[in-house]
Amino acid sequence: MVVCKPDIEAFKITKDHDFIILGCDGIFDKLSNEDTSSCVWNSVTIDNKDQKLAQNVHQQSGLAVESILKNALYR
To answer: CB 11: neighbour CB atoms within 10 A?
Structure first.
């Protein structure tokens, strides 16, 4: 179902914000805001010898997106 009234929130970005998640309803139909935030934090704190930590912000962003998408697909 497509909703013609999106959820829009306006706020000032400050140093207190660690990241911002922009996603479509396909993600948020499966994951809550807390779930998506956990995916991002878990992608930062990977302590698995099979996976490497990101070298820069672009790689870290990619790992976070991959984590969110995999979790949404799993559910």
So the answer is: 7
Domains contained in the chain, number = 1
Query: Which two three-digit tokens encode residue 20?
Result: 């911002």
Structure tokens at 11: 């706020």
pLDDT of residue 40: 92
Query: Domain residues for 58?
Result: 25-74
Query: What sign results for the dihedral spanned by CA atoms 49, 63, 40, 12?
Result: positive
CA distance 39 to 13: 21
Per-residue model confidence as pLDDT tens digits over 1-36: 666 777 788 889 999 998 889 888 889 899 999 999
Does 16 reside within a domain? no
- Residue at 14 is within a domain: no
Which two three-digit tokens encode residue 6?
């999106």
Identify the DSSP state of 55.
S
